[in-house]
Amino acid sequence: MTSNSRVRLAKEATNPALIRMRIVATGLLVLMAVVFLVSRALVDRHPAIGFVRAFAEAAMVGGLADWFAVTALFRHPLGLPIPHTAIIPRNKDRIGDTLAIFLRDNFLLPSVISRRMRRLDVAGAIAHWLTDPPEGAGGRFRSGASKLVAQILEGLDPARLGGMVKAGIRARLRQTEISPILGQLLKAAIAERRHAPLLEAAIRWASVTLAANDHLVRAMVHEKSGSILRWTGLDTTVADKLINGFDRLLAEMAEDPQHPLRLKAEEALDRLAWDLQYDRRMRERVEAMKNDLLDNPAMQRWLDGLWEQARGALLAIARDPERAMAGKLGDVLRQLGETLLHDPRLSHTINRFVRRAVVGIAADYGDGIVRLVSETVRGWDADTITSRLENAVGRDLQYIRVNGTIVGGLVGLVIHTVDRIL
Description:
- With 422 residues, the protein is an all-alpha fold.
- The chain is 86% helix and 0% strand.
- It is built from 21 helices and no strands.
- Helix 2 (16-42) packs antiparallel against helix 3 (48-74), helix 2 packs parallel to helix 21 and helix 3 runs antiparallel to helix 21 (382-421).
- The longest helix is centred in the last third of the chain and has 40 residues, at 382-421.
- The two termini are 61 Å apart.
């Protein structure tokens, strides 16, 4: 046994409540022995002393029997190797195996966990905690959890952790075909007319850009015009007509949602949404563009910066959770709680996800947990498991000694009374 184990066992053996109950139970037994000896010596002086003697004698026997039974659970009484004593030290391996089997059969079976998890409203608990955070224990839990998260983030190698996160993001992006997603988003935007502001913004941008670069149009017309047009100045007139025509066209497109060119643009967007979802060549081009973008060094630098910002934000939140809860993040979390409270479908989805996750963990790691419990108990020495069990239930066992002494005395008193009557 190591020195640390000895120190721990010494602390467990000095449990004040257990020591007090031992003193009470042993003191009562000694008291009954003294009363028995005194009453035995004085039994001839008064008939009532016979009742006291009978009570003390039976109480002493009952106390001794229960002392033997309680002691035999943890050690050999008086150090004597009596058969069927020191039950717990001799059977610690079997106790560990039985405990592991009990844990597996009653808690770690996927069917059992699924049935128990169905009665738990995890989403509801999260919602109530977010909308109305508890004081006291809840605050201590938040503080302790935040410190743990901060220590984990600071303790892990930032470069290695960041590399794992970025690699995971890139792998997920490579596995996800984004073309159908983009097509569905575009189709939904067109159906809800959310693309209209974008078209109007594009028209306004074209108008502003044309006004700011009309000299380029004039220069182009001048260069393309023949010498006669330049000599007569008609190139300037043509350029003015072109610029004014473009201006008028853009103004009409901005004012009229049913303008033919706007309808053509919407038709092209609708066709693009269809191609993104169903056209094989379009999907292949989008995938190629996505992979080229992921391989671009600029994207790598952007991901590096994004990870550092996210890690810094997580550390700031973990170091000062109360401040984070009081800011925008707190508003977002409270809004999430309100949403969970009033959205049964979302709550059902979260509860189902948690249930499946816990069941999956039990299915994948249940046998490992059972082996861990069994091997841990097997690895304990006899003194360790005896001390821990006695420290946990020993106080109640001392009450059994007290009760045995009193009940034994009462039984002896009844028997003596009946004997006197008969």
